[in-house]
Fold:
Amino acid sequence: MAKKILNVGMVGYGFMGRTHSNAFLQAPRYFDLPYQPVLKAICARSAERVKGFAENWGYQTIETDWRKLIERKDIDLIDIASPNNTHAEIAIAAAQAGKMVMCEKPLGRTAAEARTMVAAVESAGVPNMVWYNYRRVPAVTLIKKLLDEGRFGRIFHYRSKFLQDWTISSDLPQGGEALWRLDVDVAGSGVTGDLLAHNIDMAMWLNGPITEVVATTETFIKERKHNLTGKVEPVGIDDASIFICRFANGSLATFEATRYARGHKALFTLEVNGEHASAKWDLHDLHRLEFFDHRDESQLRGWKSIHITDSDHPYMKHWWVPGLQIGYEHTFVHQVADFVESLAAGKSCSPTFADGLATDCVTDAVLRSAKTRQWEKVLLG
Amino acid sequence: MAKKILNVGMVGYGFMGRTHSNAFLQAPRYFDLPYQPVLKAICARSAERVKGFAENWGYQTIETDWRKLIERKDIDLIDIASPNNTHAEIAIAAAQAGKMVMCEKPLGRTAAEARTMVAAVESAGVPNMVWYNYRRVPAVTLIKKLLDEGRFGRIFHYRSKFLQDWTISSDLPQGGEALWRLDVDVAGSGVTGDLLAHNIDMAMWLNGPITEVVATTETFIKERKHNLTGKVEPVGIDDASIFICRFANGSLATFEATRYARGHKALFTLEVNGEHASAKWDLHDLHRLEFFDHRDESQLRGWKSIHITDSDHPYMKHWWVPGLQIGYEHTFVHQVADFVESLAAGKSCSPTFADGLATDCVTDAVLRSAKTRQWEKVLLG
Amino acid sequence: MAKKILNVGMVGYGFMGRTHSNAFLQAPRYFDLPYQPVLKAICARSAERVKGFAENWGYQTIETDWRKLIERKDIDLIDIASPNNTHAEIAIAAAQAGKMVMCEKPLGRTAAEARTMVAAVESAGVPNMVWYNYRRVPAVTLIKKLLDEGRFGRIFHYRSKFLQDWTISSDLPQGGEALWRLDVDVAGSGVTGDLLAHNIDMAMWLNGPITEVVATTETFIKERKHNLTGKVEPVGIDDASIFICRFANGSLATFEATRYARGHKALFTLEVNGEHASAKWDLHDLHRLEFFDHRDESQLRGWKSIHITDSDHPYMKHWWVPGLQIGYEHTFVHQVADFVESLAAGKSCSPTFADGLATDCVTDAVLRSAKTRQWEKVLLG
Amino acid sequence: MAKKILNVGMVGYGFMGRTHSNAFLQAPRYFDLPYQPVLKAICARSAERVKGFAENWGYQTIETDWRKLIERKDIDLIDIASPNNTHAEIAIAAAQAGKMVMCEKPLGRTAAEARTMVAAVESAGVPNMVWYNYRRVPAVTLIKKLLDEGRFGRIFHYRSKFLQDWTISSDLPQGGEALWRLDVDVAGSGVTGDLLAHNIDMAMWLNGPITEVVATTETFIKERKHNLTGKVEPVGIDDASIFICRFANGSLATFEATRYARGHKALFTLEVNGEHASAKWDLHDLHRLEFFDHRDESQLRGWKSIHITDSDHPYMKHWWVPGLQIGYEHTFVHQVADFVESLAAGKSCSPTFADGLATDCVTDAVLRSAKTRQWEKVLLG
Structure:
């Protein structure tokens, strides 16, 4: 019996365009999916470059205007992999055209923007998802499972960091294709939206809602040459963003993201401490879970380094054999697999746009607190 | 300009069939290759199962008799991913038919068998390669580069292990599709050919020829139910294989492989100690290289853990961004990329069949020494 | 030539009484000191127990009233190893009697209390020191040296934690000899004074003054049986204390201490990120320094794990040979050695009482901020 | 009630003289011992230097001729901390004089020499012990306990290394006080007796007798200036020594010691793999035990890093609090404590001279096999 087809129209051919394209191609090879994703069309402004991208990844057609892409009848799903300032307009139009919508994170540059996007998909009743891919690192998914099983008891502490060091040089310009993340107009914010958003999405998924925050941000290098204007311009983004918060479950937390932590490339970390157990994970060794269980025999208590490559670990039976690790791009493959399975089951697949909005509400509170120098409540709704 | 096509005919749809298929699909997406590999045909005995495999991986046609596959004019390259006892016959026939040949490791079950294969490809003058994939773990490739640059000075020591624990239960049967590695007739030997062959190939690539060995082997569980006969039969393979050796460069080494090292899934390790520097690597954290340089400032000397994810690390500019790791299957992708590039350049791509034979000569000496309880010279030629 | 004698009068025979006694005994055996410390007298309330302690450690005499100890002409130095609520009274009396004074940390329960102590020693002109022993972990001392040499460039980030898990059980009582740290009247505060004080002392030594903080504290278990009253009483201490701060040099920092981090016994950590280099250290592997230098050759950049056991590492030429580690109590030995050498040189030995006060000013600001929910400036003078 | 006195007469004031002296001083402070060791006399050839050593460590008297020391009535125990070539003569004379004898390892330079020493102490019926101190690293002692409890099941593999790098420079001379370990006449052998002896003693204690070995040794630098003759002389010691062996319990093992492993200072390692569990330990992080238990829940199996600092860990209740590590010299303290407790109980304290001989029998077999290039049985009796 032929599988149902899921025709994908992708917007954007940058770094995220590659990870998403790979995911749509690989998911059906490793997972037995009820739909067959098809790379129907890729859309971006430069006709020449989009053509090369289409050839490389096997897209059947190309578009250079996303509005045309959305109008096409042969597209089921619009996947937005373009910079942050394009998310809302495309997502809303796609939803209004009745397309399923996937969107890179953060959902909006602000919670206000994200709210309009949630309204659009909910009003249209279309399946939707945000690419917070790190939830689907198998080690992280296992922490979620262990938490849901109540193995940690009462949670006391959560801490999470995202440390990078790639913008320390003052010679680095801002803006333009490769460096739009440093341009506040395009990105919306700096590390708060780019990095902390990942930390927050994962934290709320694992540990529930954040109720209030107190934060500080810093822009260490105040001016950089702007690639679009050619002039030295003020830097509008935050280079570092740190906050303390309280979760609804009574636990305390620290969060930190920076691009000025020399020696760290993409060190996304989390640790959760409960009454009975604790867990740690980091992205630099993403295939390992560190787990401590106080119920172990006293003289043999310690942190266990679990190599998450066994068939009873989340997602891993679909890959290789014990001991053989997977990498970064696999998290996107898992997300496609889960999305397609949810679709067939008629369920929504988290993180939905509503989840993406919840994260934007926290990043808004963080940026607000950095300005007011006060504790700020996370404002929902 | 259209790329040249490289039509692949694959034999075998097991674990290795999957890794090779993935490699042919992924290599051209991440590397700018002069040939476009095409999954033209997949061949295995079960028509039904080969059909499912073909659909999953996108093979255009299927065969159930490898002789027919070899006869086909539309196949450029035969890739042998079937069990060890099929390697020689298929490879020789393929070479005689003028096909390029890739073969899973070990090349032959014995050096004698491997010699016939080398003779065949050399006589036919066809490009050939053995899938010792671990040479192309970026961290390992970097060690090779550093050694070639002379950074280690005189080499004193080499040590390498491959530790697994999946056959400890005496309830595990031998033989049949999933467990042919425990059946000596099919596999040729136990961990010596299956695991140590990897250690030896990498060691000789990095540190040059091995001249003599003294070894011991053990079969801890002497009888197991055989899946093909249904009876309890003697176990003919070695469960553990350990040897000491000397390299032509004067260095001493220890090698060990076992499937009885509780707690280790696929812990392939290497360490090389030179006059000025040392390096360590292991497969459980394959994206890391441990490096020690005695020329560092004295008070700051230490082992450096290098996260091999930067664009100036071997192969890594083709993947993601710093900090984002790749996994096991990527090593096969790199091997396809290198093979295709060598092909276009008219060069052979190592490890060739001749390299595969060199490794078989060492495993032969190891098994011989385990019997004679003597030091055994590695017999080449 | 006979060495000069330094007659020590110790107050307190608890955990810290042991570490100090050991330090006075061991320092002259491993360091060539200008003075010979002599354990002249030990003082504590229970005559019977103080006698046993004196015998064990070789104290020549005992006292049960610290006022008498201070009056003795044959005592040169009063070392205060008794609970926090005794520090100020004893230290001030000792200074007024012209004795040198060493005091366990934190100096006072509050900055106000500490100020009176500083005034006393400065008015009396007596040598004085606070036992912030962790400055003299060789790895930490080496970080200080590297920072002072300017190897890090501009500092962007500092982070430090002190994680424990020994008070999670609600059955644990508060107060009395072994548990005075849970009794707010004796201890002054909870983890802020007991643990964070160590983090802050080390941070300011390494990274300069802290200018302002925003903090939160929590008491997870609100009531515990009190050992002195036998009744369930409110818990007055903070179980967890977290703050964000800014240093005078423009760097941002996070600090956290808790006794509710399951799986951590005494995990004191620090990390400092500079423009050119970063360093990490933790107490659970106190003999290791993690160091990253961006000036290393690009492809070989990584975190170096330096085993701080070489003769060119701080303090280490006095101990064993490379590879052989020292432990916790050695930090106190180093502090005695430095104190005695400073004494002979007529210099003060840091951390002095003035340094101890500076730390109390920060802990005061932390506790104040936790109440006001505002950023609080660190108030000096 | 006054404790019984144990008057110690020490021979040798080098590195081992320091560790032993420290042990006799520290043991009674941390352990409640039935005897009080007293540093009665120190003996070595240089009167001036022995005087300085005596002052530093508090020895009551000095001797410059060990025969006189042995004649003294006020000495209960002779502790031999002088170079290997002095062990037999002193130990035999001491035993004949009715003294208890402790001797640095290796017991004899050969098994033949050791046999005469065993005969002497057994004939005299005096308590005796060899300073294989590493058995009393708490993590190692815990492995012994776990093995004795049968937690590992059948043992399949054992591996142990001792890697150093301090003799790589060809400028390093041999012989004389600081470098007698490179002088074959004094040391007896190179790394085989100096390092491997430790590995073997620990291995047989943990895993039972070794039955046969096949070995190779190498002297990388063939000539060095001799400090005693002032001339360049052949080097008689082994720089590296590697062997494979079989234990009586059927397990296989690899052992390796070298002083040419760049980057390792004193990396003594062990790993034992059993049917149900495995353990690892190394001297560079001596306070940690790595433990894997296959009986753990499948999805949470991993190697546990146990910080051996809790009161229920061997010896640790005598030291500090959880999280605070001890160092190298503590192992000697433990050995004194155990010796004294055994003495009071009228039991022998292992490793006895008989245990030391058993190790010498294995090192003999190793050196023999390196010459014969054959498997050699371990010859006992």
